[in-house]
Amino acid sequence: MKASLNNTISKLTTLNLALFVLLMSSPTQADETITQSPQPQFATATSSNHDVSSPLTSRVPHTVFPTDQGMPLAREDVDLIKTAVVPGRAFVPSTTPRETHPTYTPITPRYQPAPQYQQPAPQYQQPTTIPQYNQPAPQSPQTPAGGEILGNNKPTDPQVKISSRNTDPKMLGFLRTTSMQELTSLYHEASRMIDAKHVNPPAYETRMKASLNNLILALDNPDFQRANNLSSQSTAIRQVQAELSQTMNSQPARNATEAVGLMQWSAELVNRQLGVRREAVALEFMNGTIDALDKYSSFMPESTAFAPGAELENRKTASLEENIVGIGVELETHPMGAILVGVVENSPASGLGLKKGDLIVAVNGQSVRGLGLNTVAGKLGGSLGTQITLDIERDGQRYRGQLSRQRIYVSSVTGTEMLDNIKKVGYVRLKQFSESSRKDLEAAMWSLHNQGMKSLVLDLRGNPGGLLDQAIEVSDLFLPCGTIVSTKGRNYSDNTSETATREKTWSIPLVVLVDDGSASASEIFAAAIQENERGVVVGRHSYGKGTVQTHFPLQTVSGLLKLTTAKFYSPAGREMAGSGVTPDLLVRATEKNSNSTDYDADIEAAISVVDQGIPSRLAQQAANCNQPKYQTPGQANNSFNNFTQQLQMNMSGR
């Protein structure tokens, strides 16, 4: 197993996904909450009657591939964003189960009676008079519904991308402090990296047409116009667009030098005719070049010097950090502002009494009506300990409250419970693959183990992915041997093959839940479990992302260039880009599949699979490690095929 991978993965979904709203801080060591607890006995790997709920112990050789030294940063699966929200958890060491491990309190079991949860009453006061705000102009149709959206969900509509960039405080801050000379140098540097590192770089002619077309679209984009004080002078704009279009079709660039010449010419033209800063034009030109590469590549400016709350951010994306600073809310866009779709436990927001469904209508006395989530996030961001005033609308009433930004721990695990206290079916939801995913998951599994867990349902529905090395480490928790994933790219370091080790492998019978929101790292894990016949995959077809991105530090400016550098392949050698993972047991989608504590068809199907003993048999067979099977879905067991067909017929009648 490689000790460190310098790579990441990402995914595209719809624009209405939630944006995590908290500005980041530099990561700090998590507080340890360690309690003494007896260690379960580990069975040897060769035993024919081992305890299937306990880890195995033996170790077998594994493949290690060398990588380039000192080049890229860690691969991550999440686009650069300003915020993240995940509830905290106790810290646990990163490698294997130990005699000391954290206390982890599971939530109330989904299928057991539970007392009615009482939401704390708001601790803020209703204003005697509602402030009269200066309302901003309504958001344009081109502005993304979700602003800059979470994780891999990078927008694909060019106008959406343009709006996202021109409402992002980080990108706007970078633009304010960057000169034309720096942007010229940046373009040269980015071009060299693209030519050397991208998995399939398009020709310069293709890149230039995309850049000029991006400028043509930007001149019509209301967010670009507002950001650059460009009035909608239709005649003048049309003249400039016509000249850009003519150049796009008549003067193709053949190399980086000619491309820079076109960038400088375009900047001078738009500046002279429309008064837009040359730097703004050059930056949009460069972003158009990068957009031409693929859905996932992007320029990511560092916020160290310019964005609100800039001193709080390090080189990692917010949702992959273990510690961040913020108020602890998860938002979606709303015509009147931003609506809460989640509140972090033990956060300033939860302490204030905010809850899902509350509508933020103003921040520090300024209305957020019509603003994109990028802008709202910028207003909510700030330094540790600073105060923020929110105006909230709930059930037709408005309230005002003050809270301070605090450090919040980011955990991958957002749900741990015993689904069935008689059958001892444990449940864990893994929200993403971040730096602490293996530790988070092990902590949750130890908790369930101490409650007598005999089988596990691991929920990856809606998990957009994350760090490649964490996908491998989490897979290694369950696989005693066999290939986990392989990657193939243009460069030597992008061609890898990762195999499982037997050290401290959990042999618990396993069911994995996936859906069309499960991508990249989630798909790596699900395919590894499925094709090694270690467990059963239940749900719906996964997203099918299948490419790897690498973050390269830039020398000319403070920032990163994220490039697609490889594709990844399942244990059987199947290319996963566009294909994803097909579940062993398909379950019809329902509105309640991911969010309801009532009937959940996926979980019901998972429990039925456990009842048939299939995960237990697979776990026992996998422990022998005779040879990898690498079966396609549904071929592992004829009795399983018969069972799944009958179960699907039964469920279709619900």
UniProtKB/TrEMBL annotation:
Region (Disordered): 31-59, 112-166
EC assignment: 3.4.21.-
Extent of Polar residues compositional bias: 31-57, 153-166
Superkingdom assignment: Bacteria
Gene3D superfamilies for this protein: 2-enoyl-CoA Hydratase, Chain A, domain 1 (3.90.226.10), 2.30.42.10, 3.30.750.44
GO molecular function, one term: serine-type peptidase activity
Top-level enzyme category: hydrolase
Matches recorded under InterPro entries: ClpP/crotonase-like_dom_sf (IPR029045), PDZ (IPR001478), PDZ_6 (IPR041489), PDZ_sf (IPR036034), Peptidase_S41A (IPR004447), Tail-specific_protease (IPR005151)
GO CC, alphabetical: outer membrane-bounded periplasmic space
Biased composition (Low complexity): 112-136
GO biological process, alphabetically ordered: proteolysis; signal transduction
UniProt keyword annotation of Kinase present: no
Leader sequence segment: 1-30
Swiss-Prot/TrEMBL keywords: Hydrolase, Protease, Serine protease, Signal
Family classification: Belongs to the peptidase S41A family.
NCBIfam families: prc (TIGR00225)
Protein name in UniProt: Putative CtpA-like serine protease
Organism: Thalassoglobus polymorphus
